[in-house]
Write a structure and sequence with these properties.
444 residues, formyl-coa transferase, domain 3, Rossmann fold, 6-stranded parallel β-sheet, 3-stranded antiparallel β-sheet, alpha/beta
Amino acid sequence: MKEGETYQEFLKREFDPGQLFDKPEPLKGIRVLEVCYVVLGPAACDYLAEFGAEVIKFEGQRGDQMRFVTPYAFFWKNMSPGLEIENHNKYWVGMHMGNPKAKEIFLDLVQKSDVVVDNLTPGRLAEWGMSYKELKEVNPRLIQLHVSGYGSWGPWTGRTSYDAVAQSMGALAPITGFEDRGPIKSGVWIADWITGLMCAVSIMAALNYRERTGQGQFIDYMQVENVIRWLDWTWLYTFKTGRDRPRAGNRDLAACPSDLFRCTDGWVALAAFSKEEFKGLCQAMDQMSLYERYSEPLDRLNDDNAREILGIVTQWALTRKVEEVEEFADRFGFAAARVLEAKDVYHSPHFRDRTTVQEYDDALYGPMVQHCYPPRMSETPSRLKWSSRPLGFDNEYVFTKILGLPQDEVRSLQDEGVIFKWNPKIPSHCPPPDWDGKRGIKLG
């Protein structure tokens, strides 16, 4: 630390956004082959790519399904937001994986790679002669991760799964929602994104094991199992009591008060669980008799008591502005924060200052402002370098610079339909209409 510098000032200097691209990437030198569609697998590889892994993404002629998944049919310069958000910093190859020549190319790349990730129907790579058994013969140090809705074995293997299905099959949707209504799924693809994150964590664990032993391995990841794992206390409660966890709206059944409350000008999230926090809330509400009755946190978890407390807080909040509740929280020592909308977070100076939201100039799509993955790392931070790309955009780079094929062989593979680029008749395959034919091309 510099003389006279506070610890917070020291940390801010350590994480200076202006030094972001001057620092090394923690996964630089790790090559990942991605044979994935939709969100699960691509999200896992996106986590790795933002921390510096060289991710090569393979698509069939129709392209990733997410090229056509976009809110209200909204596209930005032919790009689907549904595709873009889990596909940063990747190299894009169009290749017919079922073609025998494609198998030869893929196995040659496997020799030069560290990780293969696929989320195809279980057994599909095996049908093409590219199962883990065959891949590890080519590269014994290889780590392969297969992720699917129900795993590679078991009674449900092969069934189709999407995020809404996984939330339901993993028992998340049935415990989400208000007690007098039906199940509700999360407003975002939470089962996809968190499974993708945990896939990336498992790959990192396997890389660490390989670093120590030299051995690769196969990772089978089941999306629904992942949903089951992060339902906090639900499973032990059900196991020991024989009762299902009920839907309770925004109320926290294990901490009271903890809920969302309507104010005169918006909504606020409020929590005051410890004795000190609850005392502060009661002081703010001028309800010290409530504290005298329910000072102990466990007393507040009785259902009747909790409903009484939440009812009083609800009526109090209805008479206050959000800003007032936040000020009371700071003054009296409980937790409260306004319920932000996406645009509020997008423009928040706090998140810009921490580079949670990063600005970068994409060669194809122009200025972009997007959220980057935590954690914030002082020496090897994650970063956004470029956005998603048209189908087959990086064919030449991958086949000539990485694999070492001569240009005439690449042209021959293209003529035979083994490899290909975007279909001009499908806009979401294509570069932006104003593309000059050069911007964004990786030349090695």
